[in-house]
Amino acid sequence: MKKKSFEHLLIWSGAFEIFFVGGIFYGWPALQFVLKEENVFAELCANSTASSNTNSKSQISCPEQDNRYNSIFVWGAMLSNCFGMVYGYILDNVGFLPCRLATSIPFSLGLALMVFYENRTIFTLGVELMAIGGIGVLLTNITIQPIWPKKTSTIGSIFSGVFDGSAGTILLLKLLYESGIQLKFLFIGLFALTAIQWWRTFFVLPAVRLPNPTPEGYDIRKETVFAKFTAKKSETKSDKEKEELELLDSEATSVEKIDKKRDFFKEIKSLKFILLAY
């Protein structure tokens, strides 16, 4: 792929990742509607005097249930902002790749746990992990702005905009749910979207943070984790081949020296035989 095309892939796949992955936690109000349809946390209404059935599907709602939903969202929003500082520290002091891993692992794990929403504890943990990892997706993508020095503000605006708009992903999930798709399959679909995180981490994004400003001739295609691994493997192979050649040359030299010694001793023996003959 050409350098400019790869840079476009880097930026627009980042926007796609942020929209469908990064900020979906903030679509919680739309998800809350779906969860109520599934009577998630409806058991909290068992002893409530203010519970009510709101539609033909016997959807149960009560203040205790709403309080639990609100509590999950508040904790998630708080953890998201707190971990923004943590990810910033990791970026500055540990490195870009460790930060991507620290983002992708909790996010992927969180969405995987949300599939088991029948277990309220596991589901709650999954939502909080999703909130923790989501902010890191935005922060790690923001660091690629210097790839186009004259358009850093444009790239930052695009990423910030799609992060705010990524709540629409959950709205799309709500529409799919209303069309008849089971919630479990929708959560599995969200989990499948995290594949783009891992693909970009190893094949598109640089292994280390972009220099700012980027030096002339900087080629981000050579800075990805996969490219560096391939180059290192190739370099190791070349070094190994070089060592083998040097070893063969050394062995050949040794054999040559041994042959010369043998020839020398043969000449001496021949000379001694001639002298004895006379």
Automatic annotation (TrEMBL):
Give UniProt keywords alphabetically.
Answer: Membrane, Transmembrane, Transmembrane helix
Fetch the InterPro entries from UniProt. Answer: MFS_trans_sf (IPR036259), SLC43A3 (IPR027197)
TM regions (residue ranges): 9-28, 72-90, 122-142, 154-175, 181-199
Write the protein's name.
Battenin
Taxonomic lineage is: Eukaryota, Metazoa, Chordata, Tunicata, Appendicularia
